[in-house]
Amino acid sequence: MTERRNARVVYSTDAGRICAGCGWPARECTCSQRAATESIPARIVARLRMEKKGRGGKTVTVVDGLPRNAAFLKDLSQELKRACGTGGAVVEGGVELQGDLRERVRDYLTKKGYRVKG
Fold first, then answer.
1. For tag attachment on the chain, is the N or C end more exposed, with fewer CB atoms within 10 Å?
2. Would you call 45 helix, strand, or coil by DSSP?
3. With contact defined as beta carbons under 8 Å apart, do 84 and 96 qualify?
4. pTM to 2 decimal places
5. Rounded distance, CA 18 to CA 8, Å?
6. DSSP 3-state helix, strand, coil percentages of the chain (rounded to 5)?
């Protein structure tokens, strides 16, 4: 029985170029390189929500709908954590903050000129 340890495509003529990062065809690349370079639009619409599911009953505030630019998300996360005095993390396409901080986050983002929904 043969065991396949490395299942990604090494060479294929029908797929075109293969991404070196994730091994998928370049037009269907899902690696973070493409997500880290998305431009920041002039008008940002952020969506706020509170989640408890899957966190052991702990409440987190999620800021979603942000541009998928790694540097932008990291800076915004640091600013929000500092403004709210809490911990948090950058997640795929958004920021999570510990606790129910929707009002503080809404006020902070509107002062920065973002449009906030939720």
1. N
2. strand
3. no
4. 0.67
5. 10
6. 25, 20, 50
